[in-house]
């Protein structure tokens, strides 16, 4: 049996946008817990984690604008 280890350093930047700052977090609403199981509490893959293609390495959320809200979300914002 052969095993290989590949180590690669990646960089992600949380920027300030016109709609607010991007955030590095583990709290990503549209992903299942199984997709986030390699992230630590701060939203970054923990040291020593085995990752493969399509794994989430960093939880980064970007504020979305009003134009991207669904009609239901717009109604809730108008009410509250």
UniProtKB/TrEMBL annotation:
- Ranges for the DNA-directed RNA polymerase subunit 2 hybrid-binding domain? 2-79
Q: Name one GO biological process term.
A: DNA-templated transcription
What Gene Ontology molecular-function terms does this entry list? DNA binding; DNA-directed RNA polymerase activity
Origin, by domain of life?
Bacteria
Q: What Gene3D superfamilies does the record point to?
A: 2.40.50.150
Pfam families xref list:
RNA_pol_Rpb2_6
Q: What is this protein called?
A: DNA-directed RNA polymerase subunit 2 hybrid-binding domain-containing protein
Source organism (scientific name): Burkholderia cepacia
